[in-house]
Amino acid sequence: MSNLVNRRAFLARTGTGVLIASAVALPRTVSAAAKVGEPAPAFSLPASAGSMHSLADDRGKIVVLEWTNHECPYVRKHYETGNMQAIQKEATGSGVVWLTIISSAPGEQGYVTPVKANELTTGRKALPTAVLLDPKGTVGRLYGATNTPHMYLVDKAGALVYAGAIDDRPTTRTADVAGANNYVRAALQAVMAGQPVKTPVTRAYGCTVKYS
Amino acid sequence: MRPCTPAVRAAALVALLVIGMLSLPCESAAAPQAPRSSPRVRVELVSRERAIEPGGSIWVGLRQRIAPGWHTYWVNPGDSGEPTSIAWTLPEGFQAGDIRWPQPGRIPVGPAMSYGYTEEVILPVLLRAPPGLAPGTRVTLRADASWLVCEKICIPEEARVELALPVVAGAPPADPRGAEMIARARRSVPTDSPWPASVSVAAEAITLHVKAPDLVVARIGEIWFYPRHWGLIDHAAPQGVTVDGDGIRLSVARGALTPDPGTPVEGVLVIEERLDEGAARQAFVVRAVPEPRREDTQTPVLAAVSLPRALALALAGGLLLNLMPCVLPVLSMKVLALMRHAGDRASVVRWHGIAYTIGVLASFALVAGILMGLRAGGMRIGWGFQLQSPVFVALLAYVLFVLALSLSGVLLIGGRTVGLGHRLAERPGYVGSFFTGALATVAATPCTAPFMGVAMGFALTQSPATSLLVFEVLALGLALPYLIVTFVPSWGRRLPRPGPWMERVKQFLAFPLYASVAWLVWVVSHQAGSQGVAAVLTGLVLIAFAVWLHQSSRNLPARWRRAGGAAAVTVVLASIVLGAMIGGVSLPSPGRAPAPAGLTWEPFSATRLAELRAQGAPVFVNFTAAWCITCLVNERVALRSPTVVEAFARQGVVALKADWTNRDAQIADVLGSFGRSGVPLYLLYPATRSGQARAPEPVILPQILSENVVIDAINN
Hints:
Chain A has 212 residues and is an alpha/beta fold. In chain A, 34% of the residues lie in helices and 17% in strands.
């Protein structure tokens, strides 16, 4: 057990190391410190509910990261059809931690106050474990999130195992939800079954994350 | 600005369709529709012809006029976004080709990078009509276009646009407005690259190598590679570009996907070329074949490694520079001098080492500063850029020659009128050590040690601070062996005792320097031809003569010594002037401009032109060069086109080609008379009509040609 804890602590530390390295080497780009197959970078963000939420708190659990912007038509496609809520329900029902992250800067599309974030969750019957507010875009840049929706999956060992689109239909047509191949659902099923993710990296589609 | 709900969009679409139907009956021939509009993008379907022929093909284009601040996307949209798509509804038997994507632009959005279009874009598509169409009927071409338009926010939009065309037998009449737009659009569609390309994939970066040997560095502005597929590169990362005699090398950080080692990399390379009429952006389709992996390469193929690795390579490269034939003698001289200092106190020796190191570091910082400054000014140059100037190469040959003469014993050490750096380097104090460092740096320029290329390639893709760090570590590598010898007395003691053997070693070391001089003369032969070589060799003879003058007058009375010194200085100045002149003499590059297929080109001469003018024949003169990218593209997209060839034949236009690859003086005069300093220049001399007293003035065509521009000019 102590062995496991040590390993996590190590992963968390390497995550921080990666963050510093990226800040030095590539200051201008979103090119991620986060890489599929490597430890998911550690972060702490305020949750809309009030407390701070650290990725380290979710050790031993599968974690989904969902970048969102409620005004983005691509995001709306998945919420207005109930598609996003359905995966959230499946995931959190199986003990998966679902973190919805908003990296829109103040004044930009999709920026919300904690109160508004909670209203949105209730209003669209969303079921995330927590909604995290990243108005400075630090964590978004750390993960190289470029789009909304942009989805990531972290396995129980803290490694990033999926990054990319929610599905293979890069449109805003609600009719496309039904026949789509949902990459996140497939990745979740694989990880829960202890199998490798078949398509670990895809091109995320949607609106640009509204960084400051 | 909120995006429309589906309901609003549907209502808008219905309204637009109603308007479309109402407008149909009142249109006669072609029925171009009023542009569909959203506040952000107005779309319409344009056609090159007013009608369609059974079995014929027709170019149409989806034209998007985009509001300021907004953009639509290229086929690879970059970090976010979606390319425009067109779903065709065509009469039975019609076939629609793919969208021919015009060259995109870069649109930075915060930390992300999008590839797409601003202001206006026309997406050309080739449609093929079935042979069974009945002339006299009409066909309706219908396109359901959907696109994403973004400013800071993104809005998906769609519209149905239609074009109703009559079917005619025989060649359909052109639609001047549509033809102009289609020609403009097709001009901006990338052409196949005339140069082979390869790609190498390293852990952090990919490097593209385009083997274009004839490019003229000074004419090239920005270069950017747009990969066709997402995931290959980091779209927002800076692209490190070097252009030299070997072509273009471009290194960029890798994207999220691991490329398949067997699959070629596809993309569009956009090269900006400086012309008399301003800059032109030329786009080429590149299919880069993967290179076999090489571990350590002398050329900067595997550039853009991680910073620590680049620093380690820079240090190793700097250390190796010490062994290069142009540096070793300089350094050996310094070590010999050190032996002379052997009797001095350890601290004095140490300070000499430090002064030398500072000299190397400072000179490297200077070279790196100039390099980065020039690059910031838009010059795409790399390490060793100085060697692209034949004047610099000639002067370097002179400096090394003087050093070699002094090692040979022709010029006594301690002489007063040798090269400045050498003279200062021979000063006994710390200043002397500082300038030995500077001299070592100058002597090191023509040498590229293994590992150095990789570090340099990396440095040039980084911020100025990081870049400078890599250069300085390289400098440290160069300075290190000497520094260590001065700092570790036990090593110094291991040096052999001074003695007569030193003179022999010194004389021997002159030969690597003579070899370096020979190599530099060979470099000049490539840059400035036989004339340049003659100038440099004469300069070398003059320098030898100056050395002899100086040496032989040394022991004469003061008057003669002064006269000898003055004569030596005059001769050295003469040799320098000779060296500097070769810059202006000629700068040929090997090869000739490729002959455009399709037209029969006669070589240009003023006499031939005058002769043709006297006969009253229309003449087209193509001023071109092998190294002119725009000329190449013009030949491919306009001058080789079958319709242009046909137009030439119909009007009996005689085609003359003036090949300026080797800067012919006669051609330069003609260019000058039209106020031009370079190619391309296209002149059309109209036919002299009977009754005209004198031949009409030539028409100057734009530097960027399209089929239409040429055909219109010929037909008028």
